[in-house]
Amino acid sequence: MARTKSTLRDLAELILKNVEVVEADLAKRNASGPDINETFVPGADINFGNPEVSEAIYLTTCAAQQLLQTIRPPQACLIQEVSRHVVPPSLRCATELHVAEILSEAGPEGLHVKSIASKCGVDPLKLAPVLRCLTTRWIFKEVRPDVFANNRLSSVLHKGQTSEALQQNPEKKYDLPKAGICTTIGNVTDMGCKSSAYLYETLSDPDFAFSNEPNRASFNKGFNTNKTLWEFYEDPAQSARLHRFNTGMQALQRMQPVEQLRDSFDWVGLRDDALVVDVGGGIGSVPLALVKLIPKLKFVVQDMPLVVEDAQKRWKDEELVKTGRISFQAHDFFEAQPIQHPDVFFLQNILHDWSDKFCLQILSRLREAAGPETRLFVRDRVIPYTCLTSDEDNGEKIPGVLKPTLPKPLTAVGGGDPFAFTLGLGLMVLANGGERTLNHTIELYRDAGWKVETVHQFDALGRAISGITAVPI
Ligand SMILES: C[S@@+](CC[C@H](N)C(=O)[O-])C[C@H]1O[C@@H](n2cnc3c(N)ncnc32)[C@H](O)[C@@H]1O
């Protein structure tokens, strides 16, 4: 009897077709395939930087996820989704307790949970379920009963220091670049998870439900505070959290090729010593990377006083800071902008932290200080809709915007990598911010007196930050 070809098979074939692309590249480079049971060696297997491979990985993931959500009973899928609630806290425990470092020191044979727990100072009966929650997500592996070892995913949780050094100086745990992923895990599992647990309560509380205020978000319920996230970070009692956040932003910056930043704006076309004001620039990680590529730029990095203090301490020996090519200035971006008519106002990862009402204020302060030649360059994600769209849906045509496509039978744009969407929601949870679609972006900027001229995108899914260039109207 002829077999009916189902969507399941289409999905499986799509997976196979794309895995073949990844394998062909491995074969061309004489590289072995990735092994989930082995520790990760950067560059040794898949070439993640190859755009064709990266697209194949995305399609494989998208098809695999859709296959999983289709083949199981719907109730089982939903139970699986909600049961994930213990995964992020388990990851937090593993990173805070330095389990990856302890297991790396133990070697490939692994270590009994009693020994791991004794090194971490926790109850082995409580640590074992935490580790098994992770091993069932392929993070760590149980090599024999109660004996755990590192694998591909857990090996990248190593912060680059010995477990002893980390235990002796916990305040230095995020100091090395290798700890980048752990800072993000710390930020998300501490601030994000505790806040998002109150999402429904926020949507349904009349005092919060329709508020644009940054101190009326789920974060305020989760942390029982009336402060905005940023005011909260400025409290001296939260200095460890502020340090982790700033270090996390630096780590995220490192994960994005600086070439993307270089290529998404016409920096080269600017005059010598062109003045760029990095508004809400954090500790200045962006200019430090960019000015090394384009030395003629001059940056003033503006941020809150404590962040500026942190930046000045961190970079006191940095040549670009010592020579004044990059300088720091405490400035509240809701106040009148002290620098008039610069060449560029630059904002990265700022507007997505705020609701429209506050973005309008930030953009208006910059518009008031802009000269006729000043450019506004914003790096934020431009997110697509999760369905495919027509030209009509997309409104104004802006050069550089990419349109998502989905091979059949995939149905959800972003399904294989929903980072831009989860990040957007995460920002709403923390501060009533969020990522914006193109239509939303154009309208918001126009209301503040800026016309979006171009959008430079590296992928249509908003996974990479887009570069939005606008001019004064
Ligand atoms: C998400 S971080 C982005 C940092 C940097 N632009 C980057 O991409 O790495 C947001 C920054 O906005 C700063 N910020 C928040 N409120 C501010 C305000 N009212 N004035 C100036 N900076 C502010 C925070 O301190 C933080 O450094």
UniProtKB/TrEMBL annotation:
Keywords in alphabetical order: Methyltransferase, S-adenosyl-L-methionine, Transferase
UniProt GO BP: methylation
Keyword S-adenosyl-L-methionine appears in the UniProt entry: yes
Superkingdom of origin: Eukaryota
InterPro entries referenced in this protein's UniProt entry, alphabetically: COMT-like, COMT_C, COMT_dimerisation, SAM-dependent_MTases_sf, WH-like_DNA-bd_sf, WH_DNA-bd_sf
PROSITE patterns reported for this sequence: SAM_OMT_II
Keyword Lyase part of the UniProt annotation: no
Ranges where the O-methyltransferase dimerisation domain occurs: 85-159
Pfam families according to UniProt: Dimerisation, Methyltransf_2
Domain O-methyltransferase C-terminal intervals: 212-383
A molecular-function term among this protein's GO annotations: O-methyltransferase activity
Name of this chain's protein: S-adenosyl-L-methionine-dependent methyltransferase
Originating species: Schizopora paradoxa
Taxonomic classification: Eukaryota, Fungi, Dikarya, Basidiomycota, Agaricomycotina
